[in-house]
Description:
Chain B: Belongs to the binding-protein-dependent transport system permease family. The complex is a heterodimer. Chain A is mainly alpha-helical.
Amino acid sequence: MTTTLPRTGDRVVAVAPARARTSSGILPTAILLIGAAYCLLPVYWLISAATKRPDELFSTFSLAPSFNGGFIDNLVGLSQYAGGAFWQWCLNSLIYAGGGAVAATAVAALAGFALAKYEFPGKRLVFGYLLVGVLVPGVIVAIPQYLLLSQLGLAGTRWSILLPAMISPFSIYLTRVFTAGAVSDEVIESARLDGAREFRLFRSVALPMMAPGLITVFLLQFVGIWNNFLLPFIMVTRSDMMPLTVGFYSMMNQGSDQTNVYSFVIMGCLLAVVPLIALFLFLQRYWRLDLISGSLKG
Amino acid sequence: MTSLTSRRSRLRLAPYLFLAPALILATALLTVPIGYTVWRSLHATRITGGGLGVAEEVFVGIENYVRVLGRADLLPSFGRLLGFAVIFVPTAMVLALVFALLLDNVSSRLTRFSRISIFVPYAVPGVIAALMWGFMYLPGVSPFHDVAAALGLPRPDFLGHSGIIASIANIAIWGAVGFNMVILYTALRGLPNELYDAARIDGCSEWQLAIRIKVPLVVPGLILTGMFTVIGALQVFSEPNTMVTLSTAIGSDWVPMMVVYRDAFITNDLYGASALAIIITVVTLAASFLLLGIAQRRAFGSESRS
Lengths: 298, 306
């Protein structure tokens, strides 16, 4: 009885999808493909528009790429725009997103480990205090952050974007939840009995076990900073400090009297978007978003 | 003996040291700024001493709140925000749930391609999304206008007063669906397969399986993504702020966050901006708690009562 039951169960599972696939798979697949087309259409339009010379942009069918050398012209034009400002913005975005995400992940790793693996007086209070930050909209703190950082003389510098990016209450919350499951208490106890100091224990024992989750925390924070507009928009006014998002905005704002600026912005958007999408595809297996859906049970 | 006590004290101290960077940064960059905003919202500068007197910061109570709430441009601004949220939140959530269920459906094909494609907009900053869609709405470069012209239909007016809210909601939906979908999809993947097998043996169709079994089980994921989506909706700023450069239908007071920005940095009314920022925060918190409350009562009410 016990040996035959799983076998019949297996057969049902094996047969059902095969039958379903032939009869009812068309509609769900079609809906998914429509969704995919909706999401890819702007990217395709961007590629197509980037190939057009400024005079072709408004005169040819928008979804048909052009092969009259417009792509190279736009690339050269964008590179020369405002003395190579575009490449400076790319570099700035990398510095802000990379530096901020590394720091935020390190802070979250330390705090999350302490909250998951230690019992100490005031633990609930500390956790609650840090968690309030999840609920308060980040946008709201951007303006007072600017006022306080400008009193310290930091507004307008790279630190004014990097410092606020270093604290992410949601990252701490996520790290606490997955660390509770990923690092076993027995391993910590036995390392402690072997005489390991607490920081060594964190670095050599806990950190390797936390690594897969921390990569996801890093990527979430990286994308969050990379995509952020309001904070850098408020913090910096000099072009050579701007990240890409603010740079494009300033380009569009100055651009109404310059005829080629639309073509340059389109090319810039393409150059900014494609590497990030490629990075995503490349890092896909490191994305452990089940951490977020799993965090609800904790 | 001494080594044991020193180790004990190390153990007692360790969690606080691990937490120190987070606590210092959270206090300096979150608590103090929020407190400062509250303080600002209750103060104003007054010239004392008549004539060429000195400007002094004085406590004015809720005066800034009364002044800000009484302004003529605030209500329309909240109205547009509401219109935006009413289109954006349900559409983004329903699409994310439908795509997640279809990805999890055994008969769907090409799911890997679809999943990655729908996730792609998450990698695109809101400013760039607004520029891409903005160009696609712009007469002369819009593919939708080309298609409408080819079919002999009237050209849709994306950037005019009638269509602008839906146009901006579409940009935000495009950016939000993929992330929510992946969260819900991973939640669905975490459900035990035996559950489905049992239901299938009982003659449950894939459609019934999705509605009756999968959806109720991913309610926690729906609440989480729903809260993120609502909070994101109430803070919308970069999309409309970027679209200003392409559409004349968007003023500098289009949504409340744009009013806050204008007051703080263009008209230099930091006190009013602080009061308005607090109001938006309270509205956001109220909306998310309300949603959480409703969702929890719907999902868990019957169980907790019994």
